[in-house]
């Protein structure tokens, strides 16, 4: 069985850039080793609107991109002349936000006369486990949970992705974010819900978990509506901690149930948890406990590699650059792209 250790990574120092949504990030990697991973977050900017405003995000990326790249090189102990290649998120995401990173990557590649490669954002999340889990099998099931995605992917190997299940409406992260907004906990909501839930009773409020029966798909729109109704019915009497704990429990339990159904269906003995929602401690603990019980290998990235960051884009771009993949200067920023769009065969 091949593991992460068997994969060949780019032999020269690599610069990676990510700007698909509301984080401007740059990283320097040497093989699987992350030398720097600088993230300029726009949370403060967007929190006043309660969500990401695309136009404002693009402008903030324009301001941040050069200082962030410069800082990543400095912390990584490299000059641009030491860098042998660039990995850049070019899909999917906010098109204006993506364009800032793609343009910067092209300019840097041109001036340094080095190759660059457009990377699928979700492949970045999928490869975020490569940094630390060298004995993890290359074939595994991945639960990808973020602000925009809830997907179960059968990873047969790097660049071989098959969708097992996905959300038919909203993403798990959106359910966290919407719940937090309704409870007045601010934006983004995942961490706020997790913190409020610590002292709460998860059984206090009964919330729906979407699709019934044996399925590997998800639906979170009913949960969002139920949270709205709960806050309307309870009004000021609502117990914020109990509501947060109940919401978190609803999301974690349905993600766990469907994930292990996917494990049973595929017969695969390894599971990874990736994406921004993978930072949720309750979800990490629940999946870990269930995996242990069943003898399934389990990998989850460090917290800093869960939410959007350039290091994960570097990890995904690295093995691809090493096998000779290159982008041309006509590389476009694409708002939509499914994960199988990243398949190599
Ligand atoms: O991967 P990510 O940074 O951006 C996308 O690609 O969408 O994910 C952001 C999402 C947000 O919905 C945020 O609320 C959620 O990840 N998140 C969490 C936690 N930290 C971030 N959700 C639950 N618990 C957390 N601790
Ligand atoms: Zn993401």
Describe this structure as you would to a colleague.
The protein is α/β, with parallel strands linked by helices and 345 residues long. It folds into two domains: 152 residues, Nucleotidyltransferase, domain 5, CATH 3.30.420.40; 164 residues, ATPase, nucleotide binding domain (Nucleotidyltransferase, domain 5). The protein is built from ten helices and ten strands. The strands form two sheets. Strands 3-2-1-4-5 form a five-stranded mixed beta sheet, sandwiched between helices. Strands 8-7-6-9-10 form a five-stranded mixed beta sheet, with helices on both faces. Strand 6 and strand 7 form a beta hairpin. Bound molecules: 5'-O-[(R)-(carboxyoxy)(hydroxy)phosphoryl]adenosine and zinc ion. 5'-O-[(R)-(carboxyoxy)(hydroxy)phosphoryl]adenosine binds next to helix 5 and helix 6.
In short:
The protein is of the alpha/beta class.
Descriptive key words:
345 residues, alpha/beta, Nucleotidyltransferase, domain 5, 2 domains, 5-stranded mixed β-sheet, 10 helices, binds 5'-O-[(R)-(carboxyoxy)(hydroxy)phosphoryl]adenosine, binds zinc ion
Secondary-structure blueprint:
Blueprint: E1 14-18, E2 23-30, E3 33-41, H1 43-47, H2 54-75, E4 85-91, H3 95-112, E5 116-120, H4 121-127, E6 140-145, E7 150-157, E8 160-166, H5 172-182, H6 189-197, H7 221-234, H8 240-266, E9 270-274, H9 281-294, E10 297-299, H10 310-322
Parallel strand pairs: 1-4, 4-5, 6-9, 9-10
Antiparallel strand pairs: 1-2, 2-3, 6-7, 7-8
Bound molecules: 5'-O-[(R)-(carboxyoxy)(hydroxy)phosphoryl]adenosine and zinc ion.
């Amino acid at each position: 069985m091949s593991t992460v250790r068997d994969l060949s990574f780019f032999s020269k120092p690599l610069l990676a850039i990510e700007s698909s949504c509301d984080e401007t990030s740059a990283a320097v990697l040497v093989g699987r080793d992350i030398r720097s991973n600088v993230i300029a977050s726009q949370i403060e900017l967007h929190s006043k609107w309660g969500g990401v405003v695309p136009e404002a995000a693009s402008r903030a990326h324009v301001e941040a991109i050069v200082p962030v790249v410069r800082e990543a090189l400095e912390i990584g102990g490299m000059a641009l002349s030491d860098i042998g290649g660039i990995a850049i998120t070019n899909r999917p995401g906010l098109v204006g936000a993506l364009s800032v990173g793609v343009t910067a990557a092209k300019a840097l590649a041109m001036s340094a006369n080095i190759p660059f490669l457009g990377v699928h954002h979700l492949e970045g999340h999928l490869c975020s486990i490569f940094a630390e889990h060298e004995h993890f099998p290359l074939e595994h099931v991945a639960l990808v949970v973020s602000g925009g995605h809830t997907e179960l992917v059968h990873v047969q190997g790097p660049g071989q992705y098959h969708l097992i299940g996905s959300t038919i409406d909203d993403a798990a992260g959106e359910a966290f974010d919407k719940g937090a907004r309704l409870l007045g906990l601010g934006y983004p909501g995942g961490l706020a819900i997790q913190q409020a839930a610590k002292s709460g009773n998860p059984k206090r409020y009964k919330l729906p978990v979407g699709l019934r029966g044996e399925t590997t798909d998800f639906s979170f729109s009913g949960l969002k509506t139920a949270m709205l109704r709960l806050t309307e019915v309870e009004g000021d009497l609502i117990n914020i901690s109990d509501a947060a704990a109940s919401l978190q429990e609803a999301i974690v339990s349905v993600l766990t149930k469907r994930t292990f159904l996917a494990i049973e269906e595929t017969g695969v003995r390894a599971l990874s948890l990736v994406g921004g929602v993978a930072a949720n401690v309750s979800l990490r603990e629940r999946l870990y406990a269930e995996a242990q019980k069943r003898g399934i290998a389990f990998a989850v990235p460090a917290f800093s590699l869960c939410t959007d960051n350039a290091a994960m884009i570097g990890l995904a771009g690295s093995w691809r650059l090493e096998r000779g993949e290159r982008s041309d200067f006509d590389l476009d920023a694409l708002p939509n792209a499914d994960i199988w769009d990243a398949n190599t065969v």
